[in-house]
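User: 2-octaprenyl-6-methoxyphenol hydroxylase, Pseudomonas fluvialis:
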Amino acid sequence: MSRVQLAIIGGGLVGASLALALQEGARQRGWRIVLIEPFAPGNSYQPSYDARSSALSYGTRQIYERLGLWPALSARAEPIRQIHVSDRGRFGATRLSAESEGVPALGYVVENAWLGQCLWQALDAEVVEWRCPAEVTALQALGDGYRLTLNDGSQLDCDLAVLADGGRSGLREQLGIAVKATPYGQSALIANISTAEAHQGQAFERFTDEGPMALLPLSENRSALVWTRQGGDAQRLAALPDREFLAELQQVFGYRLGALTQVGARHLYPLSLVEASEQVRPHLVVLGNAAHSLHPIAGQGYNLSLRDTLALAEALLDSPATPGDFSVLQDYLQRQRLDQQLTVGFSDQVTRLFSTAQPLLVAGRNLGLLGLDLLPPAKHWFARQAMGLGTRPL
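Assistant: Predicted structure for 2-octaprenyl-6-methoxyphenol hydroxylase:
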């Protein structure tokens, strides 16, 4: 039976980022890391109009710079230079700019396939072993770690098992880790859009009584749409012919980027705030969407997961203890507790405030948006939250 120091279950963006963050320290310590992933990454990046993307905060750029990934990643990272926040049909609006915050960009939008490709190419096979395609079917707690059973019948022991297998983690359920799920009663419609006018690095957050929408700048003058609507209405929009869909989107978004000219494949995702009741046990960490899954409109989910990932790597590498030592894992979680609470709370409250038609709350959010424009300290605080810098210095 083979044994490794770390088994990362899930080789997606979070799992691969953890492997990269640990890679150099693991090499120095002689640690072996196994990355177990059911879907094999492609051998090369293939551009696609319909590629899914992620919004990376400025704080995430700083993390990837530390890990040496940013030079490669930045080749297809579209900078967000301005964010225009508005409430449809009302006077409240505010604008955030990278220049006023003293940063090159408030954030970046990157295609997931490109981010994955950059991560996978940065991993050293001498330190990080891929088991792919492979799937963990069972986890058994041992006195000094975990025993993993894979779908080919093989078994692997590890000092520390990291669950990074997504928001619908079957292994999390198998281990009896409960989740608190708060449905928003909404679905996110995701698609890429082309516009007649260049986006020039502008991102738009548009709030309506039916739910918020975001349009984020992508390469090749595309924009990534996240349109939140009630479940039935979201399904109706997803089924519309392209021309009718663009016409309805144009009516809600307006003409800030001219005419909307093309829409790609549309995908629907039911939305809930999901939080695991436990994120650490002896020799076990729950990470990424398996630990907390946020509403996408505030663009905070992946960025929070990456900050968790870096904090976990630092805790493991700073300790002389064996990976999986419970006190080390508890220290990691305590270090990230405030960040998680603030980010989850910020994302949830923004979502709820800007998804309501109640007159008093509508009036309050308009005054809030106006106040952001009139009060520089408030706007700076809001911008730092959006940049993923809310709990640490720039």
